[in-house]
Write a structure and sequence with these properties.
With 312 residues, this protein is α+β, with helices and mostly antiparallel strands. It has 3 domains: 81 residues, Rossmann fold; 146 residues, 2-Layer Sandwich (D-amino Acid Aminotransferase, Chain A, domain 1); 69 residues, 2-Layer Sandwich (Dna Ligase, domain 1). The strands form 3 sheets. Strands 8, 9, 10, 11, 12 and 13 form a 6-stranded antiparallel beta sheet that branches. Helix 1 packs across helix 12. The protein is globular, with a radius of gyration of 19 Å. The chain binds adenosine-5'-diphosphate and magnesium ion.
Length: 312
């Protein structure tokens, strides 16, 4: 039996999702005979951790602070073991620009992209480079903030007239944004658990939006807005390649414990691309990783125990 501090909530835009992930983890820990202490992460985090003296922390925070290494750094300082990836891997994965450069350097396919900081626009005239980028990427162009999750701040710009507004929207989430080539295809997610010798991929989940143009924030967390198929119906070679790509991303970013890698599959061209990796993927009842685990015969409680085992 362990005393487990379940870190949840926090200040991020994904606070509500995290509260749901955290509550579900606490219930599982209870059933497993552990002693969970739920902590809604805020200004008293260090005090709460010192008071509760946990054996281990289960990081169920999504987005800012929880996935970017901030909370992990604090846990390191307090010498409290924690679930999931270490600080440096969190920093790499949470920043889509860093992560995509790492993929490109290692020849892992990721959609072509150009990244800009706010200062490049304000002080270096980056706007003048937009026509060349549009020419290069074609339309629609996917505009996204470098760090965010749950499709927040992501826009598909369909014409050059809509690029400035899309950039402005993305800049309201982060000071760094990327313009990415649109992949016309299917939304795949490969969940990975690494509690043993080598990381293992779970069955692939395909998210099929029912009405929205892409798999956006609302579609993710409301019942009935998205259909999931797991294992995704894919040609065997495609499934194998998606898993190979996801495991390379896990390895090249230096991830640990568990993670989810999002990919796009252009079925007309038979091309796969990695979009990003989440170091604290959702653990709610509509989330992808728990569905994938379930399809592999790993129930939620066992999943939580395995994530915990990987931490200690
Ligand atoms: N280059 C792209 N081409 C097509 N769809 C994309 C692209 N990038 C993102 N999307 C859509 O937006 C969703 C979220 O994008 P992602 O890069 O995974 O960011 P987030 O961190 O918000 O999950 C994807 O699951 C996909 O549906
Ligand atoms: Mg994603």
């Amino acid at each position: 039996m362990s005393r487990v501090a379940v870190l949840k909530g926090g200040r991020s835009l994904e606070r509500q999702v995290s509260l749901r992930s955290g509550a579900r983890v606490e219930d599982a820990l209870d059933r497993l005979g552990h002693d969970p202490v739920g902590i809604d992460v805020g200004a008293d985090l260090v005090d709460r951790l010192r008071e509760s003296r946990p054996d281990v922390a289960f990081v169920a925070l999504h987005g800012r602070d929880g996935e970017d290494g901030t909370v992990q750094e604090l846990l390191d300082t307090l010498a409290i073991p924690y679930t999931g990836s270490r600080v440096s891997a969190c920093i790499r994965a949470a920043d889509k620009v860093l992560a995509k450069h790492a993929m490109r350097d290692r020849e892992v396919p990721t959609p072509e992209f150009f990244a800009f900081s706010e200062t490049a626009f304000n002080e270096l005239g980056a706007a003048q480079a937009l026509p060349a980028i549009q020419e290069r990427l074609g339309f629609p162009i996917v505009v996204k903030p470098a760090s965010q999750g749950s499709a927040l701040g992501i826009k598909f710009a369909r014409t050059s007239a809509s690029v400035p507004a899309a950039l402005l929207a993305a800049f309201s989430y982060d000071r760094k944004v990327l313009l990415e080539r649109h992949v016309d295809g299917r939304d795949l997610a490969v969940s990975i658990i690494a509690d043993g010798a080598s990381p293992r991929a779970l069955p692939i989940v395909e998210a099929v939006p029912v009405q929205d143009e892409f798999y956006d924030f609302e579609a993710r967390y409301e019942f009935g807005r998205t259909k999931f198929s797991c294992p995704a119906q894919l040609p065997e070679a495609t499934a194998r390649e998606a898993i190979r790509i996801a495991l390379s991303v896990f390895e090249l970013l230096g991830l640990a414990g568990f993670a989810r890698v999002d990919l796009m599959f252009d079925d007309k061209r038979d091309e796969l691309y990695a979009l990003e990796a989440d170091v604290v993927p959702g653990l709610t009842d509509t989330s992808l990783l728990p569905q994938a685990a379930d399809a592999a015969g790993i129930g939620f409680d066992e999943l939580v125990q395995r994530i915990l085992d990987a931490a200690v």
